[in-house]
């Protein structure tokens, strides 16, 4: 393994790409610790270290920002506005014909959709930054912990505007850094930045488990984590391959077609998106309750069932929502009718299945059958941190589970594949033998 890494760095072109990627990652992590202007940084550090802190509705954003959200840094919003804008752009293809037409235009249409995503990212960043500043002023960001209400030194409209503009500019810079990695580095830039943010919290999570639970529980968590990672890698690599045969056809004096290929349908076709959707939906009640009167009955009910995540009602809701959003997202992103039409247009067919409508029905049947175990798998993975909360009281510290594990494994596998393919082009030998 070390020899393979050495070969990668001895290749000038690949070495430059790897060093460029590592440099961008270092800049990204550095920006996560630079405080926004007008923020009482010393007081923020005390609030972050407070044992009474509960991240609540901001846990997902803080996870994707690598802890920058609670630090109120210039990169406090992280990559979440871009992720949200990308998901919205994908969903709008279903309801806006113009977006679907751009998607089918090829490279030019994709460039236009990317531009729309950038504009939407900046708009969402302004909205998120305004919401974040409002929660900081009310003290809701740190769960109304004493001494965490007056964190903004300049509470005038100008001071607040500077903070909002700084955080919005930070999101734009993160988006640019991710695109630079994609163009000039190795791997998908946005995914690698998310990977970096999540992986940055692993050392502190392991340290907290070791200090609070002891060496026995710590070793047990490591062992269970390795088993879970192996199972997730196995499922993420699993796919159903539907064979496709292309008929021979004459174009002028040349013969085309006659080849065999397959349509790969992954068990986890939706990726990590359903877990993000489910977490966001379940965070909404907790977020709304922070703006209500603690004495109200509905606020107390939400605090009992939908805040900590250790109640069976919360777990069942999380599991069912993950299954629902898995089917929903797969139905939007994979269109059997479009795939069947493309196959028919180019003379392709599934052996034993007639082209056209029968092919569409067969693809829908296979997709439904393969999505069911995939949705159950995502639901179980999403529940791992909640089960850890009940068993060892380590929800915030348990690194192996839910969104973090899916992203770490998925991005890691994809990046290793890209490095492996580039090394095979030059040395006829990949990164892993």
UniProtKB/TrEMBL annotation:
<dbReference type="GO" id="GO:0005886">
    <property type="term" value="C:plasma membrane"/>
</dbReference>
<keyword id="KW-1003">Cell membrane</keyword>
<protein>
    <recommendedName>
        <fullName>Protein translocase subunit SecY</fullName>
    </recommendedName>
</protein>
<keyword id="KW-0813">Transport</keyword>
<dbReference type="GO" id="GO:0043952">
    <property type="term" value="P:protein transport by the Sec complex"/>
</dbReference>
<keyword id="KW-0812">Transmembrane</keyword>
<feature type="transmembrane region" description="Helical">
    <location>
        <begin position="156"/>
        <end position="178"/>
    </location>
</feature>
<feature type="transmembrane region" description="Helical">
    <location>
        <begin position="398"/>
        <end position="416"/>
    </location>
</feature>
<dbReference type="GO" id="GO:0006605">
    <property type="term" value="P:protein targeting"/>
</dbReference>
<dbReference type="InterPro" id="IPR026593">
    <property type="entry name" value="SecY"/>
</dbReference>
<comment type="similarity">
    <text>Belongs to the SecY/SEC61-alpha family.</text>
</comment>
<comment type="function">
    <text>The central subunit of the protein translocation channel SecYEG. Consists of two halves formed by TMs 1-5 and 6-10. These two domains form a lateral gate at the front which open onto the bilayer between TMs 2 and 7, and are clamped together by SecE at the back. The channel is closed by both a pore ring composed of hydrophobic SecY resides and a short helix (helix 2A) on the extracellular side of the membrane which forms a plug. The plug probably moves laterally to allow the channel to open. The ring and the pore may move independently.</text>
</comment>
<feature type="transmembrane region" description="Helical">
    <location>
        <begin position="18"/>
        <end position="34"/>
    </location>
</feature>
<keyword id="KW-0653">Protein transport</keyword>
<feature type="transmembrane region" description="Helical">
    <location>
        <begin position="116"/>
        <end position="136"/>
    </location>
</feature>
<comment type="subunit">
    <text>Component of the Sec protein translocase complex. Heterotrimer consisting of SecY, SecE and SecG subunits. The heterotrimers can form oligomers, although 1 heterotrimer is thought to be able to translocate proteins. Interacts with the ribosome. Interacts with SecDF, and other proteins may be involved. Interacts with SecA.</text>
</comment>
<feature type="transmembrane region" description="Helical">
    <location>
        <begin position="190"/>
        <end position="211"/>
    </location>
</feature>
<feature type="transmembrane region" description="Helical">
    <location>
        <begin position="374"/>
        <end position="392"/>
    </location>
</feature>
<keyword id="KW-0811">Translocation</keyword>
<feature type="transmembrane region" description="Helical">
    <location>
        <begin position="313"/>
        <end position="335"/>
    </location>
</feature>
<dbReference type="InterPro" id="IPR023201">
    <property type="entry name" value="SecY_dom_sf"/>
</dbReference>
<dbReference type="GO" id="GO:0065002">
    <property type="term" value="P:intracellular protein transmembrane transport"/>
</dbReference>
<dbReference type="InterPro" id="IPR002208">
    <property type="entry name" value="SecY/SEC61-alpha"/>
</dbReference>
<feature type="transmembrane region" description="Helical">
    <location>
        <begin position="217"/>
        <end position="235"/>
    </location>
</feature>
<keyword id="KW-0472">Membrane</keyword>
<keyword id="KW-1133">Transmembrane helix</keyword>
<feature type="transmembrane region" description="Helical">
    <location>
        <begin position="68"/>
        <end position="95"/>
    </location>
</feature>
<dbReference type="Pfam" id="PF00344">
    <property type="entry name" value="SecY"/>
</dbReference>
<dbReference type="InterPro" id="IPR030659">
    <property type="entry name" value="SecY_CS"/>
</dbReference>
<feature type="transmembrane region" description="Helical">
    <location>
        <begin position="256"/>
        <end position="277"/>
    </location>
</feature>
């Amino acid at each position: 393994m070390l020899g393979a890494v050495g070969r990668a760095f001895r290749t000038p072109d690949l070495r430059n790409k790897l060093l460029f990627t590592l440099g961008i990652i270092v800049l990204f992590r550095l920006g996560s610790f630079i405080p926004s202007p007008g923020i009482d940084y010393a007081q923020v550090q005390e609030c972050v270290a407070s044992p009474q802190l509960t991240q609540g509705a901001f846990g997902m954003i803080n996870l994707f920002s690598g802890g920058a959200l609670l630090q109120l840094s210039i990169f406090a919003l992280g990559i979440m506005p871009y992720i949200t804008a990308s998901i919205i752009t994908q969903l709008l293809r279903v309801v806006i014909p113009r977006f679907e037409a751009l998607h089918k235009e090829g490279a030019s249409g994709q460039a236009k959709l990317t531009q729309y995503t950038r504009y939407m990212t900046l708009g969402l960043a302004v909205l998120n930054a305004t919401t974040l500043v409002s929660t900081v002023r009310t003290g809701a960001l740190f769960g109304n912990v004493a001494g965490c209400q007056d964190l903004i030194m300049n509470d005038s409209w100008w001071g607040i505007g500077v903070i909002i503009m700084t955080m919005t500019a930070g999101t734009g810079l993160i988006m640019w850094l991710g695109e630079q990695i994609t163009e000039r580095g190795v791997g998908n830039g946005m995914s690698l930045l998310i990977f970096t943010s999540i992986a940055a919290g692993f050392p502190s999570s392991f340290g907290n488990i070791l200090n609070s639970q002891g060496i026995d529980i710590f070793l047990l968590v490591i062992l269970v984590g390795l088993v879970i990672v192996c199972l997730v890698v196995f499922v993420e690599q699993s796919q159903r391959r539907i064979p496709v045969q292309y008929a021979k056809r004459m174009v002028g004096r040349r013969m085309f077609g006659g080849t065999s290929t397959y349509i790969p349908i992954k068990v986890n076709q939706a990726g990590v998106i359903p877990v993000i959707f489910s977490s966001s939906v379940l965070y909404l009640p907790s977020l709304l309750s922070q703006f209500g009167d603690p004495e109200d009955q509905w606020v107390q009910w939400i605090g009992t069932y939908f805040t900590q995540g250790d109640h069976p009602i919360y777990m069942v809701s999380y599991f069912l929502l993950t299954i629902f959003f898995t089917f929903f997202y797969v139905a939007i992103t994979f269109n059997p009718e479009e795939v069947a039409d493309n196959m028919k247009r180019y003379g392709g067919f599934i052996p034993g299945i007639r082209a056209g409508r029968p092919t569409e029905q067969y693809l829908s049947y296979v997709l439904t059958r393969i999505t069911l175990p995939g949705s159950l798998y995502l639901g179980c993975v999403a529940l791992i941190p909640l089960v850890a909360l009940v068993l060892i009281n380590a929800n915030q510290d348990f690194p192996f589970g839910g969104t973090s594990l899916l992203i770490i494994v998925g991005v890691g596998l994809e990046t290793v594949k890209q490095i492996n393919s580039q090394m095979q082009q030059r040395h006829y030998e990949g990164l892993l033998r």
